[in-house]
């Protein structure tokens, strides 16, 4: 019984979090002495699809259907579940991304499967059990969760499993599925970009700022730093509550959870509710004038200093580096 991985694309390209999920699914397939099939939905080039073999996929099912061009939660879940049935896969892996978090429980229901979202480890199969470590309480703790049902769905937290390159190429096959009208009750008619900026939920670099910035008029340097780094901008809750920034930028327990490779926190104290949304960031850089700020405890790199002095210097250094 092969393992199935859903390889989500962003405008026709796969991100690093997908290569992590493919590598992770490959390791599960090896544990079970079986093969790994990936499924991709939407417009992705054959070369891009075949490259999933580099991370361990033996085969890629390509679903290219006009009705499925844009993400539709229920319809995508049906297609993934159909692919699992066709392949006889009892384990389905997804990335615990913004859309993966919506898909995983729907796929689990369709397959009568047990679900682990926010997985951070490979399954421990000692004694014939299937136990996976996952994040709990908004990332404040870990739980060891056992799946006892035959079918299993696992959503892997980005940045918790390293990309492993096997160097192979996957065989790409077209996969067509009859879509049901009932799967299109909620339809995505059009994507209207409110901004050309990088989207926060799946951003690889995030520049985030808090109340230490004093007021909305000081966000110019945050925008400039983010633009130079190709990053999304984010903020703490009080900042969006005060209307300094839009609510769509609010990160944390009551906001968006992000998993970037780099999270730069500027003038944010590091309250537990904020950390809940950023704990799976790979590298955390903190800029704060208070050496006692709790954020420094979780930082990989810390700069104790005034944001109004440090950030312009950082911008200047990046500009010089790029010149
Ligand atoms: P502050 O706590 O005021 O910290 C400002 C920081 O800026 C300080 O550390 C200060 O030293 C530093 N600073 C000041 N001036 C400068 C300067 N010139 N240069 C550099 N540093 C400077 N918060 C969230 O962010 N997200 C959530 O999802 C969230 N959910 C919550 C849910 C609940 C139920 C509750 C009760 C609270 C929640 N909060 C959340 C609020 C959270 O507890 C904190 O109050 C909030 O995160 C603090 O925001 P802040 O760090 O921007 O501001």
Automatic annotation (TrEMBL):
Keyword line: Electron transport, Transport
Alphabetized Pfam families for the sequence: ETF (PF01012), ETF_alpha (PF00766)
InterPro entries the record matches: DHS-like_NAD/FAD-binding_dom, ETF_a/b_N, ETF_a/FixB, ETF_asu_C, Rossmann-like_a/b/a_fold
Domain Electron transfer flavoprotein alpha/beta-subunit N-terminal span(s) in chain numbering: 3-192
Domain of life: Bacteria
Family to which the UniProt record says this protein belongs: Belongs to the ETF alpha-subunit/FixB family.
PANTHER family: ELECTRON TRANSFER FLAVOPROTEIN ALPHA, ELECTRON TRANSFER FLAVOPROTEIN SUBUNIT ALPHA, MITOCHONDRIAL
The protein's name: Electron transfer flavoprotein subunit alpha/FixB family protein
Organism: Mucilaginibacter gynuensis
